[in-house]
Amino acid sequence: MQAISKNHNPQKVQSLLNNFFTDDFINWPHAHAKKSGPAVNIVENDKQFIIEMAVPGFQKENFTIELNAEQLNISGKAEINEEAKEIKYSRREFKSTDFTRNFVVPKDTVNEAEIAAEYNSGVLKVVLPKLEEKIAPAPKLIAVS
């Protein structure tokens, strides 16, 4: 261990602490969440895949959902109304928010014509019905005559 010398500079120590505890450090959980996008649950059952995405504060008009080849792109953009201009904020971080999440949809697994989405209570739900599996006919014994 290195001992602190008697003539250490308190201003340097304070400067190091100030640089370490920046807004980026203090807000790291929020900044990280914004970069990765909203939290997602993916459910699979025999008939469908369900993508649930936590996106409070949006309206259904704020979302764009696009299936392009094997890529499902879900994006959203919401802006906060500027009507309350008489309010003096000491700090204001949520003015608008946007996100994009991409998912791989394996080829020939989803019935593209039946994909549906709904937004309710801050949760976007995208339902991707599976294609019905073609069941091979059971082997049949053929008698030789």
Poorly predicted sequence stretches spanning 5 or more consecutive residues = 23-34
The beta-strand count equals: 7
Estimate what percentage of residues fall within beta strands: 25-35%
The helicity comes to 10-25%
Structural class: alpha+beta
- What does the main sheet amount to? 4 strands, antiparallel
Write the layout of secondary structure elements.
Blueprint: H1 10-20, H2 23-26, H3 28-36, E1 40-44, E2 48-54, E3 63-68, E4 71-79, E5 96-104, E6 116-120, E7 123-129
Antiparallel strand pairs: 1-2, 2-7, 3-4, 4-5, 6-7
Give a quick summary of the entry:
The protein has 145 residues and is α+β, with helices and mostly antiparallel strands. It contains three helices and seven strands. It folds into two domains: 9-37; 39-83 and 91-131, Immunoglobulin-like, CATH 2.60.40.790.
Give an overview of the whole structure.
The chain has helices at 10-20, 23-26, 28-36; strands at residues 40-44, 48-54, 63-68, 71-79, 96-104, 116-120, 123-129. The chain is built from three helices and seven strands, in the order αααβββββββ. The strands form two sheets. It has a four-stranded antiparallel β-sheet with strand order 1-2-7-6, with no helix packed on it. Strands 3-4-5 form a three-stranded antiparallel β-sheet. It is elongated, with a radius of gyration of 26 Å. 17% of the residues lie in helices and 33% in strands. The chain is an alpha+beta fold and 145 residues long. It folds into two domains: 9-37; 39-83 and 91-131, Immunoglobulin-like, CATH 2.60.40.
